[in-house]
Design goal:
Elements (H helix, E strand, L loop, with lengths): L13 H10 L1 H39 L7 E2 L2 H7 L2 H26 L1 H4 L5 E11 L6 H11 L3 H11 L10 E6 L9 E9 L6 H22 L4 E12 L2 H26 L3 H10 L8 E2 L17 H25 L6 H8 L2 E5 L10 H10 L6 H18 L4 E6 L5 H13 L3 E6 L6 H7 L6 E6 L6 H13 L3 E7 L1
Parallel strand pairs: 7-11, 8-9, 8-10, 10-11
Antiparallel strand pairs: 1-6, 2-4, 2-5, 3-4
Helix pairs in contact: 2-11, 4-9, 4-10, 6-8, 7-8, 14-15
Length: about 500
């Protein structure tokens, strides 16, 4: 019979969807009540958990306050409660602080950092070194150069400079150079340069270097070989030292960068991390008390209660979720809402809409809502009679003495039975066939093969799906039945 199928053809009317949602007011209220209770309950549990945690923390704080107001901290227990990442962050901060302290100590105590680069005073002494055949010249010169890093020389120089020996090495440099005697082919020139800090006597430095060179000369003759050593110049000068200026600026910049890095690391610490960090950097690893602090004041939290705000929010959440699920269900399992909608989609006649659903609208409130949304000028019995008259007129005009009322859901059975009685009163033979049970479709149709070849689809608004109608159309095509119209029950 080439009846159409409806797969993928249904459009969603938002106004009709809103009406359908209102018809499900009981389910909506139940969903809203569930979330109206669940949401504030969950928030109450969360707030109560925070409240108990705060009370416990305050209790521990009170237990650790001595009568003098000092807070006693158990560092070991706190450290055990920290995560690995928090412990690593503390160790990194300690290393950063040690680096910062070392840089600060160097800048504070280094004589090189105290020299004015715009008026740098230095002493330069040049010695001519000669060996008999020149083969040991370089070895002899390197012995002199390295000797200015010997502990013996640094200690003697530290006494003159009045500083630690570790700060002396950067003031003294020794190297081969192009001095006044460089033109002599039998030897080379050893240059010794020393910064002269303020308050240091040049004569003392000259004597220190001369005595040291004499000691190294005697030892070198016995270890490497004979050589001769002669002082050819000793000069001091004051000049602008740009290299020293760059060095001092670089050290100051490194100090500022270290301070910034440490401040950034410590700023991210929790109270527990800060307590461990302070204890480990205080200079006493056994510190168990934090002194010079005011007695901490514990803030008593307000005990939580059920919030009306969250209850209202829960009601709205329930409404939104129900509406969203309903729309999703319409997309996944589309249903047909009116008989006219179905007849327009199939291009066939609609014999009427009963607007009745005894099982769904058995309560007064259900009927009230339904009547408000779908205002009726006639009673259900009158509508049923009009539908039967419409089918009767169609049957007589097209000489269709017998029709089969086909349904695909169990809910419409009672209404179809009433319609069969009305048709009988109009002289039209009508049969009812249920196709809602997929396993019995073939048997049902074969039993009715001798009956009418004309089907009228009896659909239940908001319950009959496109799949249901496609099933009827498929059966009609298979058994060469013709679908002549629809009735909305």
């Amino acid at each position: 019979m080439n009846n159409r199928t409806l797969a993928g053809e249904l459009e969603i009317d938002l106004i009709q969807v809103m009406k359908d949602l209102l018809l499900q007011w009981k389910s909506i209220i139940i969903m809203m009540l569930i979330f109206g209770i669940l949401t504030p309950s969950m928030m109450y549990v969360r707030d109560m958990k925070n409240y108990n945690a705060t009370i416990e923390a305050n209790q521990k704080l009170r237990e650790k306050v001595t009568p003098t107001g000092e807070t006693v901290s158990d560092d070991e227990d706190i450290y055990e409660d920290l995560t690995d990442a928090e412990r690593i962050a503390i160790e990194n901060a300690i290393i950063q602080k040690e680096t910062l302290d070392n840089k600060q100590e160097y800048i504070d105590n280094s004589l090189l950092m105290k020299i004015d680069p715009l008026e740098t005073h230095s002493l330069t002494m040049e010695y001519y070194i000669n060996t008999p055949d020149g083969t040991t010249l370089r070895a002899v010169g390197n012995r002199y150069i390295s000797s200015f890093r010997d502990e013996e020389f640094l200690d003697k120089a530290a006494e003159i400079f009045d500083t630690k020996s570790e700060y002396v090495g950067e003031l003294v440099s020794a190297y081969f150079g192009d001095g006044p005697a460089s033109s002599l082919s039998t030897g080379d020139v050893l240059i010794i340069s020393v910064y002269i800090p303020e308050g240091v006597d040049k004569a003392d430095l000259e004597k220190l270097i001369s005595d040291h060179v004499s000691r190294v000369s005697s030892k070198t003759n016995s270890d490497i070989g004979d050589h001769s050593l002669k002082l050819i110049s000793s000069d001091d000068k004051t000049y602008v030292n740009r290299s020293l200026m760059d060095t001092q600026n670089a050290e100051q910049g490194a100090l500022i960068a270290a301070e910034s890095t440490l401040a950034s690391t410590v700023a991210a610490f929790s109270d527990a991390q800060m307590q461990i960090y302070d204890a480990k950097t205080s200079g006493d690893e056994d510190v168990k008390a934090v002194e010079d602090k005011e007695k901490p004041e514990s803030i008593e939290p307000e005990k939580p209660s059920f919030s009306k705000k969250y209850a209202v929010l829960g009601l709205l959440i329930g409404l939104v979720i129900y509406g969203g699920l309903y729309l999703l269900l319409l997309i996944l399992v589309p249903v047909i809402r009116t008989g006219l909608e179905l007849s327009d989609m199939l291009g066939i006649k609609s014999f009427g809409c009963q607007h009745s659903d005894p099982k769904r609208f058995g309560f007064f409130c259900d009927k009230l809502v339904f009547n408000l949304l779908y205002q009726k000028d006639k009673s259900t019995d009158e509508l049923m009679k009009d539908t039967a008259e419409g089918i009767s007129v169609f049957s007589k005009y097209y000489e269709v003495p017998e029709v089969t009322l086909v349904s695909c859901d169990a809910d419409s059975k009672a209404a179809i039975g009433q319609l069969v009685e009305k048709l009988s009163a109009q002289g039209v033979t009508a049969k009812h066939m249920d196709l809602w049970d997929g396993e019995k479709i073939t048997d049902l149709v074969e039993e009715n093969m001798s009956g009418s070849d004309n089907y009228i689809i009896c659909m239940m608004p908001r319950a009959t799906t496109i799949a249901h109608v496609d099933r009827i159309l498929s059966v009609a095509d298979e058994f060469e039945k013709k679908v002549i119209g629809t009735v909305a029950m």
